[in-house]
Amino acid sequence: MKDISVSIPKVDNLEKTSGSALYVNDYDMEGMLYAKTLRSTISKGKIKEIEIPYLPFGYEIVDYKDVPGQNIVKVIFDDMPVFAKNEVTYKGEPILLIVGEDKVVIDEILKQIKVIYIEETPTYEWKNSCCHYHFTKGNPISVFNMASRVITYDYETGYQEQAYIEPQGFLGYPEGKKITLIGSIQCPYYVKNAVIMALGVPFDEVRIIQASVGGAFGGKEEFPSLIGCQLAVAVAKIQKPIKLIYEREEDMISSTKRHPSKITMSAAINDKKELIGIKAKVGIDAGATIGLSGVVLSRALIASTGAYTIPNLEVNGDVYLTNTVPNGAFRGFGAPQMLFAIEMFMEHIAKDLSEDPFLYRLKYLAKQGDPTSTNGLFRDPIIMKQMIEKAMVVSDYSKKIKEFSTDNSFRGIGMSWFLHGCGFTGSGESTHIHAKVKLRKDKQNKVHILIAAVDMGQGVKTTMRKVVSDILNLPIDQVIYNNPDTDFVPDSGPTVASRTMMIVGGLVARCALQLKEKWIDLEEIICEENYSQPDYIKWDESTFTGDAYPAYSWGVNVVEVKVNKATYMTDIAGVWSVYDLGKAIDERIVLGQADGGIAQGIAYGYLEVMEVKNGKIMQKNFTDYMIPTASDVGQMETYIMDNPYPLGPYGAKGVGELTLVGGAPAVAKAIENAINRKVLKIPATPELIMELIENGKH
Amino acid sequence: MANINFKLNGEFVSIEANPGQRLLDVLRNEFKLTGVKEGCGEGECGACAVLINNEIVNSCSIPLANIDGSEIITIEGFSKTKQFEVLQHSFEEEGAVQCGFCTPGMIIASESLLHKNPHPTTEEIKIGLSGNLCRCTGYNMIIKAVQKASKDGDGLW
Fold it and tell me: Which ipTM did the prediction report?
C-alpha cells in the first residue's frame, strides 16, 4: 500500500488556475440588487436621529427595526448587534444597509444620509475588563517567596489583519419560505445558527452554501455571521436576491483582527539559577464587543509556558473592552501572542543569568509524561529533541549564532520552539460542537462525503477524498466532496482550530471503515459517525485544570535575518522549520501550509503594522498595510517528522495554525541577535529597531 | 456613453458604455469573465491582472476608454493556450495553488514574465511576481512553479 503522505494533485487545481472556480462575487442572479453598509463615524455615542433622503423607487433602507428575531449576532458571547440600535460603540459599526439595483445610486444615497449623534467619551485604554481568568499550577506563591531572584519583562504585540485576498461577501435570495445565503465563509453552521436567531425562524428555513473561499485565516470564522444576518434580514424584507460584497477598505476598517496584547512575565529563580516558577499576566484588547475574545484569551493563557515544563505557575488574564473595531479569530487564536512572550522571556531569563540561552531553554523542554500548564498530561511521545537537532543541522545554527553574536555584521539567527493544542480548547468538542459526519454511497458506487468543513485553500477537499478513497480502495474521482450546503450536510463543526483533519477527518475515516463493512454493490448506503471525547480526557473549565487539548502538534522554526545598518530594514535570509504534526495526509499540501503559515508568522513579527488612532484604523488597503510580497520571503525549508497520534486518521494531528505560531518569536530573536538588543515588542519595525539601538537593553 | 472597440481573447468586440468605467467591471459584468478577480481595487494586489497588448495591467486601475483599439487577454482566453497548459501543470506539481483567488493573476504575471524573459533567475521571478499578492502560499511554491514552467516549456516562450 502507498504511504498516505505521498502527494496527489489537488482536486481543485484546474478550476482555480483557469479562473473558472466560482467565488461569491462571481455568482449573479436575475433581478439581483446590491447592498452597502452605512457605518458609524464616531467611537461612542447615542444615535439621536438618522435623516434619510428621498429614496428613488426600488431603493430601501434596512436597519434594526427590520430584524424579525433578535438583534444580536450569535457568536460565543452574544453581544454584537446585527444593526446598531440607539447607540454605537466603535468607528465603522454597521448601522443600516441601503439596498437597490445600481451601486452608483446606492453610493449617492449613502453620502446623503445624515446621522446625528450625541457623542460620549470613548475608552481606548485597557481598563474595562469584561472577562478575567486565573489559574495556578504547583505552588507559585511559595516559590516566588523563596526565590533568590525574580526577573520580570513586559511584552507587547500589535494587531494583525488576516488580509485574505478575497474580501468578505454574501449573496442572499429567497427560496419559497427559505432564506438562502451563498458566502465566503469558514463555518456554514455558525452562519446558519446566527441567521436563525436573527430571523427568528425554524431550523429548516435558513440555508447556507459555501462558495469557493479566497482565503480566510480565521477572518471568515465568526465575522461573516454579522454580514450574513444583515443580508438575511434584507432578503427577508425585500424578497429579492441581494449581493453584499465588501470593498477592501471597508473590509479592513470594519472586520475583526488579531487581538493586540500586553503580557507581563515574571520568573522565580533559585540560588542555583534554576527557573522554579513563572507568573504570566496577560491582557488582550477585544475592541467594542466580547464575541469570542474569552476563548482567544484562554488559548493564550494555556500556552503560557509554551514548549516548556514549569512546575509552578500563576496565570492571570483579562479581556479589555475598548471603543475600537472588535477583534476575533485569526490563525493561532491567542497562541501567537503568548508564544512570542514566553519564547522571548526564556531567552531573556538566560541572558540575565549569564547562561547560554540554548542550553538553559533545553533544560526545561517538555517531555512525554510531563504535566501540562494546566496539570493535564503530555501522553504522547514528544520528539522535540530530534526536531531541534535537525533544525540546527540544516540551518547551521550553532556556527551562525556564534559568528553573528560577535561579528557586528547585523546578521542574526533565532530559533523558536513551540506547541499547538489541536482542536477546540477544553471541552469545546464534546460540550459545544457535537460533530457529526456522514458518508453516502449512491447506486453508482460513488461515495459522497457529507461534512460542513470548508476548503479555503488548505486542501481539505483533496485530503478528505484521499482518506476515503484510500480506506475504500476507490479511485479518487469516485469520491465526491462538494462545497458544504447546510441543506445536505450535517454539522461537523466549524473549519477552525486545526481540528478539521484530526477531528472531522478522524470521524470521516471511521465512517469509511463502517461503510466498508456494510458495502453492497449498487445499493444506496448511508453511514454516520458522531464525535465522542476519549474518556481519559478530563477538563475543568472553571479552574483551568486537566487536559486542555486531546493532542499537541510541535514545531521548531529557525529564521536568519540581515538588518540594514543604515535603514534598519530587515531582510529574511533563510527559514528552516521542523514539524511534528503526527502524520501528513498529503505531504505537498502540508508543505504549502508550512510556507504560508510561517510567512504570516514572520511578517507578524517584523513587517505588518496596523495602528488605531482615536478609534480609527489607520491602514486601509494593501498600499499601507504591508503583507509580504514575493520579494520579501526568504528561502524556506520544511521537514516533517512522523509521530503518529493514535486517535488521528493515519496518525494526523493539527497543521494549519502550528505553522504560524512560531514565526514571530523566531524572527524577533534573529533581530535581537543581529542588533544585540532585547526585543520586547512586535512588530519589530525599522523604527523600533532604531529605538532599541539607541535605548534598548543588551 | 461611448463606443469602444477592442480585441478580447482573440475576438473583436464592440461595446457601448460609460468610458470612465473600470475595465475590471466591464470584463466581469458585461463579458462575464469572472476569472478576473477584485482583491483591493487599488492596483496593489494583482488579482485583476490581464494582458493588454502583451503587457500585464491591473484591470481595476484602467478606465474602459483607454483600451479602445487594444488587444486584451484574460485568464479565460489565456487558459486555451499551450503556455497555460505548461503553467497549469507546473503550478499543480509544485503546489502553487491554495485558495486560488490570486491564482489567475499569478498565472497572467507568470506568462508576462516568461514572455519577456523565458529563463528568469529566482530574483527575476520574485521581481516579476512582486505585483501580485498571495496570502496563502508564502510564494516559494509559486516561484518554483515558474522555474519549472520555464524549463518544461523551453522553446514555447
Answer: 0.98
